[in-house]
Write a structure and sequence with these properties.
About 20% of the residues lie in helices and about 35% in strands. By secondary structure, the protein is α+β, with helices and mostly antiparallel strands. It has one domain: 2,3-Dihydroxybiphenyl 1,2-Dioxygenase, domain 1, CATH 3.10.180.10. The strands form 2 sheets. Strands 2-3-4-1-13-16-15-14 form an 8-stranded mixed β-sheet. An 8-stranded mixed β-sheet has the order 6-7-8-5-9-12-11-10, with helices on one face. The mean pLDDT is about 95.
Length: about 325
Amino acid sequence: MDIKTLIKGLHHVTATVNEVQEDVDFYTKLMCLRLVKETVNFDNENVYHFYYGNEIGSPSTIFTTFPYKGQGVRDGVIGTGQVYETVFSVPDGALQFWTKRLKTQGIDARIENRFGRNFLIFDDPSGLKLSIVEDDADKREPVWSTGEIARENAIIGIHSVVLAVEDTLETMRFLNDFGYDIIKSDDKYSLFETVEKGAGNSLILLDGSGLPKGINGLGTVHHVAHRVDTIEDSLKIKAYLEDVYGISVTEVKDRKYFRSIYFRVPGNVLFEIATSGPGFLVDELKDELGSSLKLPDWQEVRRDQIQKDLVPFDR
């Protein structure tokens, strides 16, 4: 069975972060992403799950966080077996704006050239590794822009995700079967794309020789999700991974805004496969997205207690 065309590209990246307020402020006020959904971790309702993205939270634009401060979670270690860096896409010519903006906010940033492009690399308040790259071919809509950042400088979505692994050859072979074809290599980096190609459909594999082994915790990415059209596609991929690779894949998880399965790939990075729909408009109007706490039906009955246990924050 060939599953290569079932994976369309990226869906979202989910990270474990520190404080609630600093997380919201950084991603909505400095990065000027939209908070498209305020909900809770469905597996730990004492912790928020924030979804940041474009105007409607389109798949491939979504960056999500679990603010775990005060929940007894250790500091993580960024290293092999993890998403090492999340890359955001901006229009051609916007990198100068972001370089100045980060500097003005006291954030250290540096330029690194990969594959003939300049990447502006910096950390978020929890220590997550982020970068911004210009891509004039990225035409995804609808871009979220505010009075502070004009459309010509606004972040479009996630451009690509950097995976750090020790055995790059084994991971390369897996990615090729999974739906990502290698496009080019540059020093310690290799670029992969799905059949849909380009921004939002790309992975970068980093040779992690010399890096520490990644440890999940505060300041690390928990998983990267890849999008498919339907849950039937997810189940085909699940069967393939179990039969051909002997990989243990979870049963389908209902995440309300999409349905998911999870597994670890060769190289140990945690992957999710998520359906493109139904999306974030199932329980809020477009103009109201992210304006109040939303819960799935099975948690709605405990709303009062859930809200009482959550740390309040200012938008």
